[in-house]
What does this fold into?
Amino acid sequence: MRDALKKGCQGILAIHWRTRGIEETCSFFSQFPWHLNLTFRGFYDRYASLLVGGEEGKELANILRSLQELGYRWIGGAGQSECGGFSWSAGEEEKVKKASELRGRLVDLRERLVRAGRENEAERLDYYIKTADWAILYHQTAKAMLALNSVLGKLEEARIKGDQATAKQLAEEALSLLPISTFAQAMKTYAENIASRGELGVLATINAKAFWDFREKKREIESILGREIPLPYLKPDKIKPIIPSLPSTIGEKESLSLPLILISDEPLEIKLFYKRLEEKGWKSEILKDKVKNTYRIELPALKGGDVLLFYLEIKQGEKSFTFPKEGASRPLALSIWSPSLKAEFKEPVDEFPPSPPSNLKAKEGLYSLQLSWEEGKDDTGIDCYLIYRFDGKKENLLAKVRDNWFEDYDVKEGLTYRYKIFSVDRAGRKSKNASELSLRISQFPLPSPPKDFKGEALPGGVKLIWDKAGADVIGYRLEKLEGNEFKSVKEISPPNYFSQNIIRLKEKSGEPVQYRIRAIAPNGKLSQPSLTASITPLPTSTTPFFSASFEGTLKAEPGGDGFSSFPPVFADEGIGHSIYLNSDNWVMYPHREEFNPQFELTIELWTKILSTEGMPILVGYGVWREHGYFLQILSGQIRFSIAGVGDFDSQYRPPLNRWLYLCATYDGVKFRLYVDGEEVASQNAEGQPRPSASPLYLGRYEIPDKVYFFNGYLDEVRLYPYALSPEEIKSHYEEAKRK
It folds into this structure.
């Protein structure tokens, strides 16, 4: 929003992809144009205070900010694609742990509100508690389903071989992994928490994709075991009315038909009460069940200027309650507007200039100075405040704000700052006088040194790990022992504020190294150094971590057993034999930690491409730009992608129907593509491969969409944890040609 304002944009066009709660997003967007200095912190302070008052509101604001700072879905992960194929994606364990901790704080806060007799405020926390429950339960379901998929791959291979005993044993193992109760509880939790049409749409996507996949896996297990696996029935905790689309206004002479959904497993009687605001008595009618537990609320057309009130009475046997729960004392309301109604606006007469703001105060923040004041007075109303700061020579306009507070981050310790604040009224007149204040900034504290700093040895490098950053840290300075002193080798910014900080560094194998780290404060000062980590890098492997030749078997050595969707088709061509892949035939290798290179990567293979339509994947591991790596054909050319490094579009267009030797390398500074032993393209790049926990696929992407399936032959697929040299690549090509 601030960037758009700075660039002079006329507005913001936003698309909501259901990755966060829509209410808070829209609320911030709607408030910002009227409060241009509205911050993330300030928004949640006010938002939480409207939900829960007092000190509890401040605590809630901190919790909601922490949840939002966790980012996408609160738990990370890829979620599910609405417009593409489906695949299970678990969250990140550190974020799941943090979300669980924050959920516990919400529950504790709710219980305290109930004990204080503030049930209405307590109920407003239920949405956030259930949202966290859903996210954590879905994460647990996805983890189980990913483990289940690996077992089902082995089961399918046993079926193809006709080994029924092994298939049945694997089916029992798969059944033990099938997260029946966890997924059922997740679905129940989500359904009971629906508050909008958008969330109904998410539920539809879950039913059409996640539940469909779960059901198909369940049926596959049932077919092997020869028995039905029952699903649990979870009784709703309480009857919950849902009106997914509820406007606040309707046009004159427009009747209104609203959908109503009731989560219940028992027969209900629903009575609608409605009236105009001026009427004394309520009209009522019984709503008829359209489809199971869904109804239509039909409201009459009224003239412009009227207000229509309505509420529901819901009976279940002898029990009854109203919605909203206050019933007739606090019903739902609809304003009726008319295009013919004309508002008469009189420009207020500006007789006096505004008074300056009063009770100006200042206090030191964390590397900042926080100003606050009470509003000025004016007959037309206060529009904004002008804040000036004296820099030792002249007064400069520092900011124009519409709130009655401002935080100055551009301050230095040991200096005295003098501020003047003027009021500006809605007629544009500035107060004659200003509120003034001077304050000397004391010495800011140094940031705390990083905690739990440690190192791990890697092949050809080291991994350094330390605790998440505090609010007083903007980055880190990494120091390495060279000779007898530590020297700065790298600055790391921004830091990770929510989970461990982790970096990997290339080093010479077998040569001990020592590192330490310092935190950097917003004013640039450094903390005391952390403890020193001493590590000796492991030897670098010079052999592939995956090698598949397809000589009548899918087994990769190394790489483990492969599993195909249908019986594999081995061809008598290539280097000995090869494998034919298409939309019905692809190969999956269960995840291994060795599939994650630390610094460099080589993918080499022989291929005969029959079609370049779509975006076919030759080698796929992970999710594009999220984690893992890919060798694919995009727009007819070879693309090499590594999450954490980037995309290399080589511009090389492979020919069809002839065998090619392809080798793609990344050496830490450059992508390269070799064809038949010769380099054909390169691109500068930097970064480190981002590890994945996905299976390794040949001939498809993790999402089983037909656009990603490869049509052609593969042979001699090898993956190395380092970049092969041009000499090695030429040698491999010539050696394979002789075969």
